[in-house]
């Protein structure tokens, strides 16, 4: 079975070992121990990737933990409904952000065109 050292994961994901230890402290990762050495399994690596992706998308660590818990255990209808609500909220937020990004991109393209026109109409100096 493939295992990883904390330094290998830190390098691969371009984060600090301190960040990885923090995720362990809050219960999102559960590496095995061999003495004082942490031994991470493939499952831990996948979870770390999901943690980092979730953070980039605006999920809190508590929400990420809920997603992991949902995956790890059978959940009640109430818990599944709650998770769907979290997913819906995040999806709506991301859609609004995407709309805002598209508007700003259009404004930047318009500004670029104006600048290029202005440069093209100016006579060369000297």
UniProtKB/TrEMBL annotation:
InterPro entries recorded: DNA-bd_dom_put_sf, MerR-type_HTH_dom, MerR_fam
One Pfam match, given by its short name, reads MerR_1
Keyword presence, DNA-binding: yes
Where does the HTH merR-type domain lie?
A: 3-70
GO terms, molecular function: DNA binding; DNA-binding transcription factor activity
Q: Which domain of life is it from?
A: Bacteria
The entry's keywords: DNA-binding
- Does the keyword field hold Oxidoreductase? no
Classification via PANTHER family: HTH-TYPE TRANSCRIPTIONAL REGULATOR YFMP, REDOX-CYCLING DRUG-SENSING TRANSCRIPTIONAL ACTIVATOR SOXR
Query: What's the protein called, per UniProt?
Result: MerR family transcriptional regulator
- This chain's source organism reads Photobacterium aquae
Q: What is the lineage of its organism?
A: Bacteria, Pseudomonadati, Pseudomonadota, Gammaproteobacteria, Vibrionales
